[in-house]
Amino acid sequence: xxxxxxxxxxxxxxxxxxxxxxxxxxxxxxxxxxxxxxxxxxxxxxxxxxxxxxxxxxxxxxxxxxxxxxxxxxxxxxxxxxxxxxxxxxxxxxxxxxxxxxxxxxxxxxxxxxxxxxxxxxxxxxxxxxxxxxxxxxxxxxxxx
Length: 145
Prior knowledge:
Blueprint: E1 2-15, E2 18-23, E3 26-32, H1 39-51, E4 55-56, E5 62-64, H2 66-69, E6 72-77, H3 99-116, E7 120-122, E8 129-144
Parallel strand pairs: 3-6, 6-7
Antiparallel strand pairs: 1-2, 1-3, 1-8, 4-5
Helix pairs in contact: 1-3
């Protein structure tokens, strides 16, 4: 599993123009699932997302995690994160897990994050979503489980 983390001042996701998830200050995490991923990767990635130090302390250094900062988390599934882009001008998606594999793992990731954080929102798995965000910093990190 892979996650693209963005520290945000605000983030939201809509499906057909209808809001389905929104947070204020916190982390937007775009999540990609690969065919070989299993529950262990979902649990490990959840732990990394919650504990990754990307929020400033009193000295302005990135020494605080999402759980320490008290921010929200918006999780959005995005199969294009794990696309094969090595050749040509068109991505290949054989490197992304099928929806039957990816959805339960994404749901496990969400459940694990909810045990460690009060404010966890999500997009809608498999939907055409519009994601809006204000990247704070900008601060963006790529994590793998």
